[in-house]
Specification:
Helix content: 25-40%
Structural class: alpha+beta
Distance between the termini: 49 Å
Strand content: 15-25%
Length: 418
């Protein structure tokens, strides 16, 4: 007699569930056709990604697509570790760098909703080291015309930059002070920043920088808990983002991808060995702006929550209004469109994401209302509310390249048939 026929119904279900990969049970699944997309056109995603692997632009990557709140496409390409000949898999863990920002922003907004954090309060209300903010005016520093507010931190209008050996005086001083020393802590980082004159008066310009790291320290101070603990309690655990955090624990290290950069001659050079990486241990400084690792499916959970008005899988994380503020342009009147490498005409910034206010020749494939961001190792995501579309792409190509996003975006939008 066939063994399956001798088993009870419960035993058969247990056997079947054991063969279902974890990611399939974690996310709502559908087919492209059922959600108004063409499977034939989506096959071109594989052609693009396999071409990048063949040309040694990337070692490997993953593309995850959801429509109408359901995953319709998830494929992995190439290798996560060239030396060890390990493939990218659907549960591969990546360094997400600046994709950490939206997670930190969402966690901070839970405190705003509880009345414990005021968006329009000066940062000095929570961090006294910012009480006497100064700004560079030519070669000299003068008092800022207005204080940095918490909202300035969310939308990158604070005047706080990242460090750079070549750049503005603020960038140079941040670099010399080693502000983002991962072996230090958030209090040390904030104390260093509080002594450095900033690049412009708060609220007058947009510039990417360590603003969300400062916001992360405020979250830590207001909540009375380490930033990583608070984020885990408010965002990661409720959304079951079980592979996201500030380091890769021992039992998950076999899934951690290597990080590469190109020598420009068709060869990928190892930048960070996953077997020796600093990410294998908890950092001293939990960077709210760029310190996390995670999987594509974990990040999809965050985006599903935001796209669904702050609720996912029966769990309310944010109010609908607050979730929408994350992707509603918050830039003050008179502040130009964001500038990241070059001016992104028509693109503003909300309380967590960049947002396309109006498409332009600079970004012809962006759709109105589209929001997203990326990370330094060329991970990227975008959400188009009007198309009910969410896309997450993961790779480990340093420094940041927009090539995957720019190449895949027209392909994926073209696959929408109704």
């Amino acid at each position: 007699m066939n063994r399956l026929m001798r088993l009870s119904l419960l035993e058969v279900l247990v056997l079947l569930m054991a063969r279902v990969p974890a990611w399939a049970a974690e996310l709502p699944m559908s087919t492209p056709e059922a959600e108004g997309m063409s499977a034939e056109k989506l096959a071109k995603v594989g052609e693009v990604m396999n071409g990048f692997v063949k040309d040694k632009k990337i070692a490997g990557g993953i593309v995850l697509i959801a429509r109408n709140g359901k995953v319709v496409f998830q494929e992995a390409y190439g290798q996560r570790d060239l030396d060890r000949k390990l493939p990218v898999e659907r549960d591969t863990i990546f360094r997400i760098y600046s994709m950490s920002k939206a997670i930190t922003s969402a966690a901070a907004l839970t405190l705003v909703e509880e009345g414990k954090l005021d968006l329009d309060a000066p940062v000095s209300k929570y961090l006294p080291e910012f009480a006497e903010t100064k700004v560079f005016d030519g070669d000299n520093a003068r008092p800022a015309k207005s204080p940095i507010t918490v909202r300035d931190l969310f939308r990158h209008t604070s005047g706080i930059t990242y460090g750079g050996a070549v750049g503005s005086k603020t960038e140079t001083l941040i670099e010399l002070a080693n502000v983002m020393d991962m072996q230090s802590d958030l209090a040390t980082m904030s104390a260093k920043l509080g002594k450095i004159p900033f690049e412009f008066d708060p609220g007058t310009k947009w510039k990417y920088g360590a603003s969300i790291d400062v916001l992360g320290f405020i979250v830590q101070k207001v909540s009375g808990k380490p930033l990583g603990v608070f984020i885990k309690e408010r965002i990661l655990d409720p959304l079951e983002m079980n592979d996201t955090g500030y380091f890769v624990p021992a039992e998950k290290q076999s899934r951690f991808a290597a990080n590469y950069f190109s020598d420009g001659k068709g060869r990928l050079i190892l930048r960070d060995d996953p077997a020796k990486s600093a990410y294998l241990h908890p950092p001293g400084l939990e960077s709210g702006g760029g310190g996390m690792v995670g999987t594509a499916s974990d990040y999809m959970r965050l985006l599903l929550m935001v796209a669904n008005g702050g609720e996912w899988n029966g769990k309310r994380i944010l109010s609908r209004e607050m979730a929408e503020q994350m992707h509603t342009n918050q830039l003050p009147k008179g502040v130009d469109w964001i500038d990241f490498g070059e001016k992104r005409t028509g693109v503003g910034f909300g309380l967590g994401f960049s947002v396309t206010v109006e498409p332009s020749d600079k970004a012809p494939h962006n759709h109105k209302g589209e929001f997203g961001w990326g990370g330094a190792a060329s991970t990227h995501y975008w959400v188009s509310p009007n198309d009910q579309l969410i896309v997450v792409t993961m790779e480990q190509r340093w420094p940041y390249s927009p090539e995957t996003e720019e190449t895949l975006k027209p392909v994926i939008y073209d696959a929408i048939v109704k």
